[in-house]
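Reply to dn_fold:

You asked what the input looked like. This is it:
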Amino acid sequence: MYEILSVLYLVVSIGLVGLILIQQGKGADMGASFGAGASNTLFGASGAGNFLTKTTTVLATLFFLLSMILGSLTSGQVKQTDEWENIDAPAVETISTEAADADVPAEDSASDVPN
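and this is what came back:
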């Protein structure tokens, strides 16, 4: 169920962004109405704008509803704990004296060193 809603959420959000990007702003035809083009209105066309506006409203409503549904589904889930969650206590390393003595080179005596 969660995966289906996530995919639907992704499709709705991409569709919403696409519809918003293809719409014209309210002042887009303002320059065209002053002689730069053949526009009939000052603040946008109403033909395709109504369909795009209604579709954007429906997709925005679906987007917010899916956001709330997905948020309520994930709020009740318990997160899986991992070993890095509690790193307050430092790790204790013990070094045996035999291993420590084996790693340290022995001192050279004066008789062992050739001249």
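Residues 48-77 form one domain.
Hope that clears it up.
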